[in-house]
């Protein structure tokens, strides 16, 4: 299943937030969206997942999601959004219960996703006992449990320290290599974009417009072997963004 | 004060005074102590008893604690305490449970629906501050002088603070969690049951703490109307008869009741809010 | 001004706070000269002698500089006298009063209202429903519900009188303490209680309006000293002369009242004049023409010369003690000081 963003524009009251956004998310690819803060990245992601409606344009599904997918468009949030009163297993079971999946069937799925996110030993833990990185892995496990057709990630690593971020990035890469999932990954961190993105969509400052779409042809598994190439891509992106970021910064100060 | 113009840096380090950095932290962190409260109480009661014995405190002003204790023991030995407690606990339980259930339903409605909130919030703001004692004559006409009016007094008293606690609690549930529920296609009722209610539980429990205290406060008012038995009725009678020893004994029973309720809710918080960081 | 010792002062202020909470009006002035006294009064027609003696200058004639302090209920008057904040009051014999007397704080010094045949007095009312079901005389009250303000109140005692007279006890009745006269009336009107007793002018209104039925009068049950004049024990011991002068002036007020209100038709002009005087203090929120009928109908009998029916007081004390509503240690001698008024029986 592909997703196509078709002429999306949006305004909150009088503030124009997004302006005529067009691009496609291809099945099996990770699309990174970068842009200065306040340019409408999170808003755009909410449109893609159907949590909000744009004032103009629409998000189209091209093809049907796989039949086994319980929740085709599944979010992973920056703040993890785990229920603090449920254990790790309970948090995963939460998203299965409404699909009538309980008992051994649920246990099988939960064991599977916990194993895939290396959390098998922590099923009974409460969120307050887990570190930030672990919490985000629980959120990823929960997302995997509903067999998404496309993962929608809003700065999933921003709340973590840089070491944990590195480790989780490796995990996301490994997972992609195994499962070839589709993802739309919002970040303001250029390094994440060049490490994870098959394609990077660069947005301008608010109102967000597509400044450029950059393809990164190096296979995900090989990227760390080509630091110079990556750095080149990152510098290119930074050049695109520098002016936007500076202008956006001043704008915020003016407001 | 050293003269700023004369260079003092020529001093060797060994000649400079060596002393620890002055400590400026500490304080502002009172810790619970198991010892202070008993000592404080024993001291207070001994002073009080002594004051009564030596005539510093007139018996018209305050009875000796031993007299109040004697009044309490009379109550126990005559078997009346059980009757009084039975009557009061029944009224408290019915009134509080009724007020809490209704309060939960109405508070949840106010927390979830725009229309309900528009109606309920001003209504609660208008009725909560009304002293329920002022409504007693109306309650007599509506509910009679039997158990109904007594239960109703407590029910009304607990209903309003519960409504406020519930919709306040619902408001404070992390919107991100609700959005998460929606993003996983959870049903409306699932979101209410599995996300909103547990998320509002801390506020609910502290609401219960308040509503249970209000229920106990209202017990005396509730038992003003035609009650033969009940701790409130016992206190009222003691007041009528100027029997200070019984009055103090009755008030002490109420505060013990308050302490027990507070302890129970404390336990409930420990059990149900284990997940809190 | 500062002659009190510290202990007395603290006690005074403690009670001042207690009594002040229920004070209807008046200001707190410290009693200083011997002949400056304060009387605790309620805005009832039965308190008229206070107003008459005050307005007609009988207190002045006795060298008493009187201040009237108004209260909402009788019990706080007793508390205020116990604390020394006021000097004289009038109250029914209640459990609370007996308790204060037992603690040596107050003493009865004369009689006031009494039930007497031929005068208005407390009326026994039945609810319409109970009346229709056969409650037509006080003797039928066995097993019926009875409204009163509080346990140990005069309404409670009246139930005891009725029961005793008819060969049963209050345990055979369902006594409903409703705290306020208004609540009693509401409960009777709506048939939630079967019966109660109430002062004559209120009873008249209820019966006339068809809200209840009269089934008897308390005065037919026998002698009953309803209210008494009382003061602090300290006054009876240390200021006997002042108390005597007070009683003389007060008796004059009672005499005036009886002469006019006891037979209102004898001298209509005098009656109207006295109604005017009383209306300055009672039913002040109503216009005179509305207040007058209630004042006239409420002109209960007051004991001549403030004479005290000690035999009945003894009987009342015994009843209260029997029902655990008065301390067992209280004796008639401790309760009453007979040096200041005649005693009857
Ligand atoms: N619900 C909303 N109501 C009004 N304004 C909003 C709302 N959500 C976001 N905005 C505004 O839209 C702009 C884009 O926000 P957002 O999409 O969160 O930016 P980003 O995620 O790129 O930092 C910001 O100026 C923000 O203040
Ligand atoms: Mg954002």
From TrEMBL, chain A:
**Which GO terms label this protein's molecular function in UniProt?**
ATP binding
Q: Which UniProt keywords apply?
A: ATP-binding, Nucleotide-binding, Transport
Q: Report the PROSITE patterns cross-referenced here.
A: ABC_TRANSPORTER_1, ABC_TRANSPORTER_2
**ABC transporter domain: which residues?**
3-232
Q: Which SMART domains match?
A: AAA
User: By its UniProt entry, which SUPFAM superfamilies does this protein fall under?
Assistant: P-loop containing nucleoside triphosphate hydrolases
Spell out the PANTHER family in the cross-references.
ABC TRANSPORTER ATP-BINDING PROTEIN, TAURINE IMPORT ATP-BINDING PROTEIN-RELATED
Family stated for the protein in its record: Belongs to the ABC transporter superfamily.
Q: What is this protein called?
A: ABC transporter ATP-binding protein
Organism the protein comes from: Sneathiella chinensis
TrEMBL record, chain B:
What are the alphabetically sorted keywords of the record? Cell membrane, Membrane, Transmembrane, Transmembrane helix, Transport
What InterPro entries does the record point to? MetI-like, MetI-like_sf
| Residue intervals passing through the bilayer | 35-56, 93-116, 123-145, 151-170, 214-235, 247-266
Its localization reads:
Cell membrane
What SUPFAM superfamilies does this protein's entry cite?
A: MetI-like (SSF161098)
Which Pfam families does this chain map to?
BPD_transp_1
Alphabetized Gene3D superfamilies for the sequence: MetI-like
User: What domain of life does the UniProt record list for this protein's source?
Assistant: Bacteria
Asked whether the UniProt record includes Ligase among its keywords, one would answer: no
**Record keyword Membrane present:** yes
Residue intervals of the ABC transmembrane type-1 domain: 85-265
Name the family. Answer: Belongs to the binding-protein-dependent transport system permease family.
Q: What is this protein called?
A: ABC transporter permease
State the organism of origin: Sneathiella chinensis
Automatic annotation (TrEMBL), chain C:
Pfam (any one): NMT1
Asked whether the keyword Signal is assigned, the reply is yes
The alphabetized UniProt keywords are: Signal
What InterPro entries would the database entry show? Solute-binding_3/MltF_N, SsuA/THI5, TAT_signal
Signal sequence coordinates: 1-33
Where does the record place it?
Answer: Periplasm
Q: Give the SUPFAM superfamilies listed for this entry.
A: Periplasmic binding protein-like II (SSF53850)
**Superkingdom of this protein's organism:** Bacteria
Residues annotated as domain Solute-binding protein family 3/N-terminal: 36-261
Indicate yes or no for the key word Repeat.
no
The family line of this record is:
Belongs to the bacterial solute-binding protein SsuA/TauA family.
- What's the protein called, per UniProt? ABC transporter substrate-binding protein
Organism, scientific name: Sneathiella chinensis
The lineage is: Bacteria, Pseudomonadati, Pseudomonadota, Alphaproteobacteria, Sneathiellales
